[in-house]
Amino acid sequence: MGLYLLLLTVGACWAQHHPNTLPGRTSVVHLFEWRWADVALECERSLAPNGFGGVQISPPNENLIITNPWHPWWERYQPVSYKLCTRSGNETEFRDMVTRCNRVGVHIYVDAVINHMCGAGAGGHATCGSYFNAKTEDFPAVPYSGWDFNDGKCKSGSGNIEDYHDISQVRDCRLVSLLDLALEKDYVRSKVAEYMNYLIDIGVAGFRIDAAKHMWPGDVKAILDRLKDLNTTWFSAGTKPFIYQE
Helix-strand-coil percent breakdown of the chain, rounded to 5? Predict the structure, then answer.
């Protein structure tokens, strides 16, 4: 089933520092690329009985399907939409996992890929079957269009990050050709927050923010400020999602 990787976390400035684990449970494991059904079983059979507090899961939203190389781990970091279907399972299986893990006191922390969409040269198929055209920056399943990306702000010749000593390139240009979202725009912020709040409603306890250094802190704060309190089925009223960053 794979090896447990202990998760080292750093709290964000704008969220509570408590990870929302039950009293006495301080360890979170990273079940990288596991299927939702297997995570649910692991919560029930091993993690809860051994006192674990939570699981970080791979990104649950629709992603590009890559076949050369064959389904690399990094295809999960190439979003196509915020629909909940990946090779780990569909939305029904995701909801079942969250419910079953919460029932035994093991909470779910989502790897949130919100800096970008898939690569500029990408094409073909996505895990939910959604249409997209990365060349024209058309993602109707969100929807995003060319207006929602940072092409006009990037000052590098290629459109990619060329100089990691230039903070504007790091935050406004494409990371290895991944289409960089214009997170200063209210519309883009609203779609990202809508996705994260949907997961909060399902019952997740918090988020790892992928590619955090590639986003302006003010943009990240503006998104986090829009997040709901956690689902009171599993958490006390007024509990904030736990946020930690790559």
Answer: 25, 20, 55
Instruction: Report which secondary-structure segment, H or E, holds 212.
Output: none
Contact predicate 215/171, CB 8 Å? yes
Question: Which tens digit of pLDDT belongs to each residue from 78-107?
Answer: 999 999 999 999 999 999 999 999 999 999
Backbone angles phi, psi at 114, to 5 degrees: -125, 0
The catalytic residue positions are: 210, 246
Using DSSP bridges, classify how beta strands 178-180 and 5-6 pair: parallel, antiparallel or unpaired: unpaired
Tell me, letter by letter, the H, E, C secondary structure of 110-126: EEECCCEEEECCCCCCE
Closest to 52 in 3D by CA, of 83, 6, 17, 86:
6
| 173 Rama class: left (phi>0) / alpha (psi -120 to 50) / beta | beta
pLDDT digits (tens, 9 = 90+) for 126-171: 999 999 999 999 999 999 999 999 999 999 999 999 999 999 999 9
Q: Of 101, 93, 95, give the one whose Cα is nearest residue 25.
A: 101
Residue found by looking up tokens 């994260």 in the block: 196
Helix (H) or strand (E) holding 198: helix 186-202
